[in-house]
Specification:
Number of strands: 8
Strand order of the largest sheet: 1-2-3-4-5-6-7-8
Radius of gyration: 13 Å
Number of helices: 1
């Protein structure tokens, strides 16, 4: 399954120790509403996610430029993304990390160690050409 991040909204990122608990789903919703978030993995651009009303999103992989539509919902303290064509949800904990945000992939109730760091966010739409994607 392709990894995505949500998806996820904040401005800037610094690495460091995570907070005591993940941010709440309500805080995630407030931070991501109407934004496009850009994520790095190990300091390399990985992808971006644009957030729309109704907990809809659009993820773009930097490596391929491929885009996929999805939806997110809260599951306890996790934010789970359901992408078109995926086998099942992809769930993440979002942690405040200094002045930024870090997303940690969660599988079978535990963080896997796979992390995405928020590089930046803005209000611009993603460049996702093609007949099968868009807002």
């Amino acid at each position: 399954m392709k990894q995505a991040a949500t998806t996820l909204v904040l401005v800037g990122l610094a690495t460091g120790a995570p907070a005591a608990s993940p941010i709440s789903p309500g805080e995630f919703a407030a931070l991501s509403a109407g934004k496009t978030l850009y994520f790095d993995r190990d300091g390399t651009p990985f992808g971006a996610e644009q957030y729309f009303p109704g907990q809809r999103s659009l993820w773009r992989f930097d490596a391929t430029g491929d885009c996929i539509e999805g939806r997110w919902r809260a599951d306890g303290d996790r934010i789970c993304f359901f992408y078109d064509g995926a086998d099942g949800p992809e769930c993440w904990h979002f942690w405040r990390d200094g002045s930024g945000l870090r997303a940690m992939l969660v599988e079978e109730g535990a963080e896997t160690g796979s992390a995405l760091d928020l590089d930046h966010s803005d209000d611009r739409p993603l460049d996702c050409p093609g007949p099968d994607v868009g807002s």
